[in-house]
Amino acid sequence: MTTAPTRPLPVAVPGARGPIELLRDYAQLIKIRVTILVVITAWCGFFFGQHKSGLPVLTIKLLWALAGIGMVAGGTACMNEIIERKSDALMRRTALRPMVTRSMGLGHAIAVWAVLTTGGATLLALKLNLLTALLSLLTAACYLLIYTPLKMISPLCTFVGAFPGAMPGVLGWTAARGHIEYEAFVLFAIVFFWQFPHFHAIALLYCDDYAKAGIRMLPVVENDGRSTARQILMYGAALLPTTLAPTMMGMAGLTYFIGASALGLGLFYFCARIWSECLPPSEPRSRILARTLLKASVTYLPLLFALMMLNSAR
Question: Which one, of 44, 265, 36, 295, lies nearest residue 171 by Cα?
Answer without folding.
Answer: 44
